[in-house]
Amino acid sequence: MSSPLLRVEGLVTTVENGSGPRVPVIDGVSFDVRRGETLALVGESGCGKSMTALSLVRLLPDAAQAVAGRVLLEGVDLLGLPEAAMRDVRGRRMAMIFQEPGTSLNPVLTLGEQIGEVLRRHADPGSRATERSRVIELLQSVGIAEPAQRVDEYPFQLSGGMRQRAMIAMALALEPDVLIADEPTTALDVTIQAQVLELLRDLQRRRGTAIVLITHDLGVVASMADRIGVMYAGQLVEVATRKAFLSGALHPYSRKLLAAIPAFARRADGLAVIRGQVPAPGTVWSGCRFADRCEEVLSSCRDALPTLIGDAERHAVRCFRAVLGEGVDLPAADPTLMLREGEVRRDAIVAEALHAAAQPDARKPLLVLEGLRVHFPIRRGLLRRTVGHVRAVDGVSLEIGRGQTLALVGESGCGKTTVGKAILGLTAATAGRVCFDGEDLAQLGRSALRRYRRRVQIVFQDPFGSLDPRMQVSELVKEGLRAQSIGISEAERDARVRRLLDQVGLPASAMRRYPHEFSGGQRQRLAIARALAVEPDLIVCDEPTSALDVSVQAQVLNLLRELQRALGLSYLFITHNLAAVEFIADRVAVMYLGRIVEEGAVQAVLRDPRHPYTQALLSAVPGVGEQSDRIVLAGEIPSPVNPPSGCSFHPRCPKAQPACREQVPNAIRLADDHYAACQLLAPRSAL
Amino acid sequence: MKIVLLWSDGLLWGLVLVGLLLVTQVRRHEHLAVPWRRVGQSRVAMACLPVLLFFVCVGLLDSMHFRPQLERAPGAAASPGTAVAAPAAPVYSVEVLSALDQVLKTLRASRERTYSAPLATHAYVKESIDRPDGTTVREFPRLAHAGMGLAAPVTPASVAADLLERGAIGALAGGGGWMLVMLLLAWVVRGEGGLLAIVRDTTSLRWRAALAALLVLLVVTGVLGAWALEYHVLGTDKVGQDVLYLALKSVRTALVIGTLTTVVMLPLALALGIAAGYLQGWVDDAVQFVYTTLNSIPSVLLIAAAVLLMQVFIDGHADLFQTTAERADLRLLFLCVILGLTSWTGLARLLRAEALKLRELEYVQAARALGVSSLGIMAGHVARNAMHLAIITLAMEFSGLVLAEAVLSYIGVGVDPSMISFGSMINAARLELSREPAVWWSLAAAFSFMFVLVLAANLLADAVRDAFDPRVAGLRGAR
């Protein structure tokens, strides 16, 4: 066994806490990373993952400080180095990739200048010309097309995926031994994420770089990591190889995280939920830090802190249950009852779902979209002439039945949010019809529109942006009641608010508080309560869980399902998270560049995707299960200002035929409830 | 005595009334009181409070006007031809006095002939004095109302001793008053631990800071007050008026200009700025057109033209005004209106930009989806979230307006010449500073009064803004 490249021993990082004593946010973290290995650190937000990364490169914010432990890079303790020597380590030996590609590049410098700066700082690049050719080489190595041209471009001229590639190029400029990637793909779409992950894997293969990958996405972990470290409250609670972890995670926290991932098999009884929240830094523990949220807590858990037991190379866990002989040495002897139960239930659930899908809905659909188009004019010049259109939505036809959930899936920029806004009447349709319960939205007068708004509601993605920070919870929830003149007296409305809060699982004491006092998941509950206040029939959920941690996402998805069952709501669930779709949706529509490319029952589309785009999208999702062949799409979504002719997917489609360039494909019925818009799927005779 | 209610008095007291109503509202509703309590937890804000209260009290005292009844000359009533029975209607002075004038009676009455330096006993310039023996000498004449109690040969040492004695008495009086306030306060907060809690600064509101500021304020007031009884603490101006009196009288003018202008400006800026940003379309075009046009006209010219028009009107309708004070007041009021009309554009522009940003936010979209009317959204979401801009701008504007008044007085279109203001004091300093030896105290007095007033207002506004911004408040709590 080779000696580790990077060894972290007993790292403790503390932050200032007002006038009180400093509070540890990382408390004795130790791990090794070998050359060419990927160690993934996972956990909910607030567990100290990013702080660990920043401690390694010594880029902690002023209030934080690594106070104990060692960070050994080939035997040299980085924490003891003077700052000047550390500057040489950063970039040359260790590099970092940040989450937000938009803000980690300087907008006023060209790519060439920014990457060249790194070269100049650390190595003698020789002349300008050689520096430039080196930068072009780097851009090429991260898969940026036409690097000689891109080198003179500014960050705003690049798309998000391109910017992240440029960031990676910058990090790799000096061929570092260790690459620390802090949520490198969280801000990217799945197909772009697949590209970036593939790039990282490829670079690692070629250069033997060690990667410390920080993420909360267990799918990414499963597809990237060699070893996995689970962090909770500033400590590693489990370290295991990928295989051992996925087949038999031992710590209750790890198991809960895995069980919280939405999946079709978990539809019947909801997702596993970790009660409570990640403890705030400065909490005082007497025993195991997870004890308060653990469902398998033993009496000894509250008295003493378990140590990390086992071999960190293979599988180690910080849990008393493991000490009791529940199989540290035998990861195969799976103690996770949950998974086995899941197996058993799966068949029953699939049967139930098929049964439900087979029942024809006798009633009329609740919402019908017919050839909906939303074009935004682009105006230029002094006279604001219209010079073109952004074809955000370009002919979408959909139906949503009563009590049904339709998931609208697609990458950012495909127009799915605009569909949602058009349904709500927040954006006017350019052409086509939105029919709700037989009424055409465009025909509604002022007061009819106000009545309509009682029936269709929306829940937004960002739980921090969707609640007015200056309104108390009671005011927030009451807003709809007031606007729709529901309830006569203030007391009546108050009672109703209390009932709504109870319905979404919040205490009545929340009424007098402000949104910023709540966590992300609680705020999303508030947003749902606000939408429910007017008793809608349909709720448009616009990425309601994208900004949330896995465990919190599970709570919100469970809540949405419970509410649907109790109140018979219909949902239009807009998302790019296919796992959530599997869990919550009855039917799914896949959207690409303003059009629906495939539509059908959730099982049919997700298990047997027919459109090449759907296939690529599904394979790009890093799953917890093993995956065989991966379709990585080249390029990015084209601009909706000037969509490609014919089938808009043809420039990226691996199966494109010459005919695809000319003809706009129509939806083809493939099965009972499964449609796809692709010419290649048409019966031979039709061609 | 006949009570005179000037327009600006009415408006100022109206504002006070509205303020008191708001306070009772806020006290009744817990959730409204919370941010204000946060203001009270800021040491700076609590320290500013007594200072501002002092200025407001001076301003309000100066806003209770009356005309004193003139004493009839003896014998005039008993002229032979008239009937004795009916007592003649009382005759009132044409001079309108205020409660403050009554309080500062000695200051007002103790007029010298011309300039004298602060705390001087002799005039600032030499005069020719005729001796009883017929000779004429040039020397600094003795002041009529300064250091009267001193024995004949007035030496700097004797003045210093007198000042020390009086100052000590004043400081003691101030300290005594402070003790009284402190005991009263200790009784008020007895629930929280009384005096001990104040000293340890463990009260929920930071009373210690307020008391510390009050101590300084009361001692300074006590010392200056004790000196002012016998000396001209801040000297006298060209016509021999006490500068301290002038400075105190100026406070009201500054407060009126600072507050009433915002009353004119705020609704305009809020309504037009937010409507333009939120509604867009032709409303936006129209509002932008108006404020760009208004901004392209030099505001001084616009104000000058408007004030001169007003002056022509006032001069042409002299019969409408019973006293000069009423004329001056109308001009002041008109100045507020015209300043408000020209100064709303900056805030409106800020608010429009903020509304443009806010209208795209998800909570505004959510409100639209709930069917809340545009007006409801503008008032409930946009205005509320843009309010911090208004508060900051108003605080900045307050000082700006006090200064604008000075500038306008300089070119002769400010307040009426008969009205005492910081502007006219500063304006006068233009000539005083250029003489040799320079007369600096008018400017210094106006400067220090304005400085303290504006600084206290700004610091308080800062604390208010922090307390009302939930994000900043949240950080404070965590830190």
Descriptive notes:
The complex is a heterodimer of chains A (687) and B (479). Chain A is globular, with a radius of gyration of 27 Å. In chain A, the strands form four sheets. In chain A, strands 6-7-8-3-9-10-12-11 form an eight-stranded mixed beta sheet, with helices on both faces. Helices cover 33% and strands 22% of the residues of chain A. In chain A, helix 3 (111-122) crosses helix 4, helix 16 crosses helix 17 and helix 17 (520-532) packs parallel to helix 18 (550-567). Chain A is α/β, with parallel strands linked by helices and 687 residues long. The termini of chain A are far apart. The longest helix of chain B has 37 residues, at 243-279. Chain B is mainly α. Chain B has helices spanning 7-28, 30-40, 43-61, 99-103, 105-109, 156-188, 194-200, 207-228, 243-279, 281-296, 299-316, 324-358, 362-369, 374-410, 422-434, 441-468, 470-478; strands spanning 2-4, 65-67, 97-98, 127-130, 136-139. Chain B has a three-stranded antiparallel beta sheet.
Give a brief outline of the structure.
The complex is a heterodimer of chains A (687) and B (479). With 687 residues, chain A is α/β, with parallel strands linked by helices.
Topology:
The complex is a heterodimer of chains A (687) and B (479).
Chain A: E1 6-17, E2 20-33, E3 38-42, H1 49-57, E4 64-73, E5 76-77, H2 83-92, E6 94-97, H3 111-122, H4 128-141, H5 147-150, H6 160-172, E7 178-182, H7 190-207, E8 210-214, H8 218-224, E9 227-232, E10 235-241, H9 242-248, H10 252-259, E11 309-311, E12 315-317, H11 320-323, H12 337-358, E13 367-380, E14 385-400, E15 405-409, H13 416-424, E16 431-436, E17 439-440, H14 446-455, E18 456-459, H15 473-483, H16 490-503, H17 520-532, E19 538-542, H18 550-567, E20 570-575, H19 578-584, E21 587-592, E22 595-601, H20 602-607, H21 612-620, E23 668-671, E24 674-676
Parallel strand pairs in A: 3-8, 3-9, 6-7, 7-8, 15-20, 15-21, 18-19, 19-20
Antiparallel strand pairs in A: 1-2, 1-4, 4-5, 9-10, 10-12, 11-12, 13-14, 13-16, 16-17, 21-22, 22-24, 23-24
Helix pairs in contact in A: 3-4, 4-6, 15-16, 15-17, 16-17, 17-18
Chain B: E1 2-4, H1 7-28, H2 30-40, H3 43-61, E2 65-67, E3 97-98, H4 99-103, H5 105-109, E4 127-130, E5 136-139, H6 156-188, H7 194-200, H8 207-228, H9 243-279, H10 281-296, H11 299-316, H12 324-358, H13 362-369, H14 374-410, H15 422-434, H16 441-468, H17 470-478
Antiparallel strand pairs in B: 1-2, 2-3, 4-5
Helix pairs in contact in B: 1-2, 2-16, 3-8, 3-9, 3-16, 6-7, 6-8, 9-10, 9-12, 9-14, 9-16, 10-12, 11-12, 12-14, 13-14, 14-15, 14-16, 15-16
